[in-house]
Design brief:
Oligomer: single chain
Strand content: 25-35%
Number of helices: 2
Largest sheet: 9 strands, mixed
Order of helices and strands: EEEEEEEEEHEEEEH
Number of domains: 1
Radius of gyration: 20 Å
Distance between the termini: 70 Å
Structural class: alpha+beta
Number of strands: 13
């Protein structure tokens, strides 16, 4: 590694026209498109986290054997970088043009993807990770209605280092010499348990209790 042990690469994390975040609420009777959905209350209504793999296998200019699975903690680690929506209608996210990334040293190749969710699930990676693992445990159902999605996987080298590389855009549709970015992506309304399932679960528990008492 040509950089120092504690050197940080830089990333351009602002997106632009043609690289917007969309929502799809068709499953709950809401609209779709390059908006931030009916749950939006303005800036900070949606959060995004950057996850990284610091030892991807790159073959023929592509990463292999990777899928954007945020619960696979043996492969993907939270970078510590968050983004949020800039406004509730345009699909833009916050960020900067040279954001330091403490997990991505210059002159090294990482793979990455972005996880996005509506703020009613929480404002931290820990909160959304808990919601994800709980939804898996309950057959894919989430505790409350909201939006969630993941991007495609990108990879490359960050800005900085020696020789110094320019700061790459994480968002894009075509690769540069040092970087393969990700396009905009969609957050989908997530499934929640049918109201009747709570009633059935309660009746089941009551029946079991009565059965035990009768014994």
């Amino acid at each position: 590694m040509a950089s120092g042990a504690f050197a940080q690469g830089t990333l351009w994390t602002l997106n632009g026209a043609g690289l917007l975040i969309s929502t799809n609420g068709a499953s709950i009777g809401q609209g779709t498109g390059s908006t931030f959905g009916p749950n939006s209350g303005g800036v900070g209504s949606y959060y995004f986290a950057l996850l990284e793999d610091n030892s991807p296998t790159v073959t023929g200019g592509n990463v292999t054997g990777l899928s954007a699975n945020p619960t696979d903690t043996s492969t993907w680690q939270f970078s510590g970088l968050y983004l949020t929506n800039l406004n509730n209608a345009a699909g833009f996210v916050s960020g900067g043009t040279a954001v330091p990334d403490s997990m991505w040293a210059p002159n090294t190749t990482n793979a990455f993807f972005v996880v996005g969710w509506s703020a009613n699930f929480g404002n931290s990676w820990g909160a959304i990770y808990s919601a994800l693992t709980n939804s898996v445990a309950s057959g894919g159902n989430w505790a409350q209605e909201g939006y969630y999605g993941v991007s495609a996987v990108g990879f490359g080298e960050p800005g900085g280092g020696s020789p110094s590389l320019p700061t790459p855009h994480i968002w894009g549709t075509s690769a540069s010499g040092q970087f393969t970015p990700i396009p905009g992506f969609t957050l989908y309304a997530v499934p929640v348990p049918e109201p009747g399932s709570f009633v059935l679960a309660g009746l089941s528990g009551l029946s079991l209790l009565l059965f035990r008492r009768r014994k």
